[in-house]
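DATA SHEET
Item: assembly model
Revision: 1
Owner: S.N.
Input lines:
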Amino acid sequence: MSVRSWLLEVVSGLLEPDERAAVRGDLIELGQTDRAALLEVSGLVVRRYAAAWFELRPWIALAVVVVPVGVVLSIASRWWAYGSIDVAWLWVHSAEWSYFQNPGWRGAFVSSVVRTPLDYLTLVCWSWTTGFVLASLSHRAAWMNGGLFGALLFLGTMGTTTAARSHAVHAAELTWMLSEEVLPAAVRTVVVMFPLALGVRRGQRGTPLPLIRTSVWALVAPRADAPSHRDARERGHLWLAASR
Amino acid sequence: MVGEFEYLVLTSAARLGTEAYGAAIRKDIEESIGRHCAIGALYTTLDRLQSKGFLETWMGEATSERGGRAKRMVRVTPEGQRAAKAFYQAITRMSRGVSWANPVSLRP
């Protein structure tokens, strides 16, 4: 398959299934080359996606979901990525095997191991739900709104600092790039953007969510992260005690 | 009142009758007016005319000459015929008395 054929498949995939079949069939019947067909299909896709913004719903999605949730998740994802660095630094550099004879240390270790993934699970749930809502509010504008969400996610904290956090001490021990740039970017890509894309795809299917499974997730997900904030203070005290 | 391109699509679909679908309409328009007809313009116009109630469309059967892909068949509704007729009459009335509308003046 040539690059143009592959691109044609990708761009055609942005059309509704029936329209995709009709347009691709027309272009084959008219004997269009892959290059000409790619230009024709791209033109139709641009028209379709631009037309979506003549309605109110994509703008509502932008104002009510993309901007506020994008900013919140931008801050939360970086905050929790730095939190992970704190935890990793604490256990790698400060802990000794003898500490595990202390029940308090063992409890704190188990708590960290369990609750850090719960932080990320919460981000995954928020992101998937955001994608689903974007697609439900505006089917065709969902990917464009998703792109704007991504821009806010990655650029929302640009120029700000977390120097007031204890993380700054740890960052000196890790490399600046890893702690300040790479890990937050990785968290945002894997834990936010990927679930968001899955949520958009699920929302675009247009079929209702399964009632029982959705109800269970709706009850469990908001509580997954609740103990984490309490625990963050305890971890902070623990780190101070270890560093003395 | 329909627009110029909408009129072309309605007229072509009416002329093609049961054989009216995307590729056939595009070919007919290009042959009639001698200009390129973008598939994007055609399909968005079909949607617009359908939303106005001037056209009905449905998916036809898949054929091998189209790579097993179905056609989007088109039929002009009575409202579409009235709208096209109104446009034609308006253009005809509007053109009375102008030099390019007089067949004699067009002769070399």
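QC remark: Chain A has a mean pLDDT of 81.
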